[in-house]
Design brief:
This protein has helices at about 10-15, 25-30, 95-100, 110-120, 130, 140-150, 160-175, 190-200, 215, 220-245, 250-255, 265-275, 290-300, 330-340; strands at about 35-40, 65-75, 80-90, 135-140, 180-185, 205-210. The longest helix is centred in the C-terminal third of the chain and has 27 residues, at about 220-245. It is α/β, with parallel strands linked by helices and about 350 residues long. The chain is globular. A 6-stranded mixed β-sheet has the order 1-4-3-2-5-6. The chain contains 14 helices and 6 strands.
Length: about 350
């Protein structure tokens, strides 16, 4: 499979030097190549009112109607996770709070420093963003993305993985009691097909799936920032753990002391891959082995160790008993190793 996309804006995809590390970063899970989800606490103002003990039979009151947006970061890189971000807040605050007060926009047009600053405000308890908004991310590890795409049968492609991630995140918000009435999503594939499926799953909400939704709808812009900063921070954490283990000495000798944005179009990324390739195993769980960039480097002459797999003899069917000492030949051979039994 060739790389999904090539991003020419390498500078905007490179993590800030002092990127904020949000609570969505789990260093232990990242280091072992596991995928995971993180949900922020739901602001108290968005939850249904507590039941009144004097009128226990009263119909429960829902929380304020909320708008929810979903977007991703890191679909095309060969290194690091793909992260799906979700963001929600009261419908009445969407434009005033996000667009007018804090100037959220598509994360791809915000500088890494601005993205990091917005995320830090969202995670700071004394801010209006923290008090009025909630968010979640699904961190899909490079290891799991590659393994799913290279299954010998029933390939689980990237679009299907993205769809399932989106659905699971939205379901998680409903399960937490948030009154979601509007859903906006940046499309993957055909917007109409994607929207019809989500409308069937979430019939109580107005669903809009559109291209460039991260530029059109403030809640999607905010979701884009959550996804992008989480990916930025994940790259930094993965790189630090890689360097601390002393696995990068050769790469540093060639000036490859960083893997940059993780995109194949980033020269720092391809240089790092070239000079830090282990001849037998390639790279660690930070690499998407299903990407063309990784495959090409492993396939080039002298790029990796050659493995010759033995050809099985199809004319003979093995039986369970073949793995036990039972034949006269096996018994004779055992005597050569252990000698003859002294007692008969």
């Amino acid at each position: 499979m060739i790389d999904s996309e090539v991003d020419d804006h390498v500078v905007f995809d490179t993590p800030a030097a002092d990127v904020f590390i949000p609570p969505s970063i789990d260093k232990s899970l990242l280091s072992c190549g596991a995928s995971y989800t993180h949900f922020s606490a739901v602001p108290q103002t968005l939850l249904p009112p507590a039941p009144n003990s004097t009128t226990p039979t009263a119909i429960p009151t829902a929380g304020p109607p909320c708008v929810l947006g979903v977007d991703e970061a890191g679909r095309g890189p060969v290194l690091g996770p793909m992260v799906y971000g979700l963001f929600y807040l009261p419908i009445s605050l969407s434009n005033p709070l996000l667009r007018q007060t804090h100037h959220f926009d598509d994360s791809k047009v915000l500088t890494p420093t601005v993205r990091s600053s917005l995320m830090e405000k969202l995670c700071t308890p004394t801010t209006d963003l923290y008090a009025q908004c909630g968010w979640a991310v699904d961190v899909m590890s490079a290891r799991d993305i590659g393994a799913n795409m290279m299954k010998p049968a029933g390939t689980y492609n990237l679009n299907a993985q993205a769809m399932d991630s989106t659905i699971a995140l939205i379901q998680g918000i409903y399960q937490r009691g948030v009154n979601v009435k509007e859903i906006y999503i940046d499309t993957i594939g055909n917007p109409a097909t994607y929207q019809r499926k989500l409308e069937r799953l979430f019939p109580s909400a107005q669903v809009t799936v559109a291209k460039k939704a991260d530029s059109l709808y403030p809640c999607v812009s905010a979701a884009s920032v959550c996804a992008k900063v989480t990916r930025d921070a994940a790259l930094e954490v993965l790189y630090e753990s890689y360097a601390m283990e002393g696995r990068e000495e050769e790469g540093q000798a060639h000036g490859g002391n960083t893997w940059g944005s993780g995109y194949p179009s980033d020269g720092r990324c391809t240089s790092w891959l070239k000079y830090n390739m282990e001849p037998v195993f390639g790279w660690g769980s930070e690499c998407r082995f299903s990407w063309g960039t990784a495959k090409d480097m492993l396939d080039i002459k002298n790029g990796a160790a050659r493995v010759d797999w033995p050809i099985e003899d199809d004319d003979k069917t093995s039986q369970v008993t073949d793995f036990f000492v039972g034949s006269s030949r096996d018994a004779d051979e055992s005597k050569l190793w252990f000698g003859n039994n002294m007692y008969y």
